[in-house]
Amino acid sequence: MDKVYNHRKYESNIYQLWESSSAFTPTIDKNKKPFTIIMPPPNANDPLHVGHARFIAIEDILIRYHRMLGRPTLWLPGSDHAGIETQFVFEKHLKEEGKSRFDFNRDKLYQMIWDYVQKNTGIMEKQLKILGASCDWTRFKFTLDPEIVKIVYKTFKKLHDDGLIYRGERVVNYCPRCGTSFSQLEVNYIEKDDFLYFINYGLLSIATTRPETIFADVAIAVNPKDKRYTHLIGKTATIPIINREIPIIKDSLVDPNFGSGALKVTPGHDPVDFEIGQKHKLPVLSIIDETGKMINTPPKYIGLSVSSAREEVVKDLKEKGVLIKIEKIHHTVGTCYRDKGNLEPTVSKQWFLNVNPLVKMTLNAIKEKSVVFASKKYEKIAIHWLKNLKDWNISRQIVWGIRIPAWRCEKCLEWTVTDGKTPKICSLCGHTKLKQDEDTFDTWFSSGQWPYATLLSNSKNSPISDRSKTNSKTLSKINIDYPVSEDFKYFYPTSLMETGYDILPFWVIRMIMLGLYLTNNVPFKTVLLHGLVRDAKGEKISKSKGNVIDPIEMAEKYGADSLRMSLVWGALIENDISLSEDNIRGQRNFSNKIWNLGRFIKNKFEQTQCEFLNLKEINRHIKNEDKEIIKETKNLVKKTGNLIEKYRLNEAAQSLYEFIWRKFADKYTESIKKRLENGDKFVLSVYLNLYITYLKLLHPFMPFVTEAIWQEIKHLIKEKYESMLINSPWPSNFFNSN
Predict the structure, then answer these.
(1) Of 60-74, 91-105, 474-488, where does mean pLDDT reach its minimum?
(2) Residues of the chain above pLDDT 70, percent
(3) Are strands 244-250 and 236-239 parallel, antiparallel or unpaired?
(4) Is 8 exposed, middle or buried (0-12, 13-18, 19+ CB in 10 A)?
């Protein structure tokens, strides 16, 4: 063995050894309980970042641990087409080339993005392997795989047939730069300083942060309990500049303590105003188009951006003497999570999912512990989101994604929804001219079906044609007409969903909702959420701050094991961690320590030509210091397993580090050197028994260096152990069997 562990020499070859041996592919054994994680699919638009590396480290530790316990263990990998995020990134590449999405027709643009994604998907797969992800590549899925798309279509059709999907006109969160709407959960709310404008409307004054929208006002609303305005209800106010009269109405949604207590009602550009307008049957006026430019206003404002129009309107209000005052205000504004610009609330016709029945099922599943959150605080957050969830806008005005299977009749203007098949005639009037909707599904709608879609679409297994013979107690029912695969029967519901806490509302609760709806069962039994990776100072990592840590660069420099250990070190999974190159370098030193211990025992065995014996065979030769460390190692085995089961990976990693370095290396190793000098050869077998145990305990955390050492020393053990450490048993009964 080399004097120093050289990860570059071993890691690639070891991964090929694992993969070629089918070590990652579980065998279905109905007599054993499986352990399953469906990988959160990384976006197929960019290489992996350090946040991906953290979830890979966490999930791979759990997967390797359960595999060593002897359970059929499946970690199913995949990648996400990522909808608007991918198209947004691709459009930035086009912009660098002096091009725009508008330069291409739909089919051409889609094909260009497809080629771009396929290229990056290959990069992502290589990077997962560099980081040691022991996932089953034979089951790899992509959210645009034909079989996945079929399931998404069938889900949409069933939701529509059940009356949960509707085409509605409502105020949606619209980004004029991205050119698409977003759902309630995708709005990035930020606090900012702004101005509150008090404007004279004749009989009363209003206060608004958006004076440029006065041309779309259709009423002034006051709270019915506000005595200041009771006498004005039923009268009219006058919109300045255009001098249009509008009614003064009463509504309990008005906050009498905000501004002047009188609200200008603009249903076309505010969700609360839209709700008031629907209640009072007010007209809806739109004065901002899909590009963020002014329309349907006096000529001087037409074509201006929102910010420019605001400046002009304020200036004109001052000139007319109707601008009473301007105050500073600190408030919350909805912004686009992609480009960080302000969203424009816009009335638009979209496809919506009525979430109420799904929310009730999900809340009940959480209450009954059908799905358990490893951290209680995230269960509370999930419940809060669910109780405040509004109908889900699932349509997007982009090219990249799964196109909505709905066709509009040119004659009766009604929609025909299918499970993906193109209808020949309108289902209502029989007309033959139908046009498919240009919109695509919100990417979270398809990824929300990820756990059951990946397992149902597994073409490796033959489908079961007669589901009526299936035992309903052991198999979740599928509420869509789709064959149930062997994978779905065995691995669903999955054991664990592990992902970042920042996508709890976007993804996790939606997977539970859709899983319950389609399968009558939760998609996973436990939810484990991890925190963000921050820099050494605790600052959020971003390109603009220049503190980005490239996980692949760190893995190539210090070894994947060093990076993995540093990503679970120092904090509980659910908390943010601080990461620096010094942290990673420190774990590289630990890799070398483990390597040197293996080198030491190998050299001593070969020099003395000793035969390896188990502890029972040398029981009478064991000294008191051996008995002491054997006892402590038994406790370490138990402690490590318990900590992993409780997802306290940082404590497990740190206790292994301290024990192996301090007690085994610094103390025990030094003491046996003197015994070897005195001819005590039996101590080598004690030492190797212990060392093998530590390699097994460390393997889930540091798989490469432990496997590399195993391949160097396994000949000392001969036929008594597995040819690869990845397939060896967890040492829970190691000492009892010796």
Answers:
(1) 474-488
(2) 95
(3) antiparallel
(4) exposed
Question: Would you call 346 exposed, middle or buried from its count of C-beta atoms within 10 A (0-12, 13-18, 19+)?
Answer: buried
Q: Which residues of the chain does CATH 3.90.740.10 include?
A: 180-345
Q: In the CATH hierarchy, which fold is given to the domain comprising 583-733?
A: Isoleucyl-tRNA Synthetase; Domain 1 (1.10.730)
CA 22 to chain centre: 28
Which two three-digit tokens encode residue 51?
């946040």
> In what order do the strands lie in the sheet containing 406-409?
415-417, 406-409, 434-436
Q: Which residue has the tokens 């499946």?
A: 74
295 — alpha (psi -120 to 50), left (phi > 0) or beta? beta
**HSE, side-chain direction, 13 A CA sphere, residue 129:** 19
Of residues 562, 504, 495, the one with CA closest to residue 532: 504
Q: Please, where in the chain does CATH 1.10.730.10 lie?
A: 583-733
CA angle 71, 73, 78 (to 5 degrees): 175
Does the pLDDT at position 54 exceed 80?
Answer: yes
SS3 call for 54: helix
Is residue 445 within 8 A of residue 164, CB to CB? The reply is no
628-683, pLDDT tens digit by residue?
Answer: 999 999 999 999 999 999 999 999 999 999 999 999 999 999 888 888 888 888 89
Tokens read off for 108: 């051409």
Looking at the predicted structure, is the pLDDT value of residue 462 above 80?
Answer: no
Residues 60, 133: contact at Cβ < 8 Å?
yes
* Residues near 519 by beta carbon (within 8 Å), at least 6 away in sequence: 452, 476, 477, 478, 479, 492, 493
How confident is the model at residue 620, as a pLDDT? 85
DSSP label at residue 100: -
Q: With contact defined as beta carbons under 8 Å apart, do 582 and 549 qualify?
A: no
Q: Assign domain 180-345 one CATH number from 3.30.450.20, 3.40.190.10, 3.90.740.10, 3.10.290.10.
A: 3.90.740.10
Helices 106-130 and 551-558, packing angle to 10 deg:
30
**What pTM value is reported for the model?**
0.87
Helix ranges restricted to H, 268-305:
271-280
Is the bond preceding residue 493 a cis peptide, omega within 30 degrees?
Answer: yes
For 601-620, what is the mean pLDDT? 86
- 203 vs 207: CA distance, rounded Å: 14
DSSP 671: H
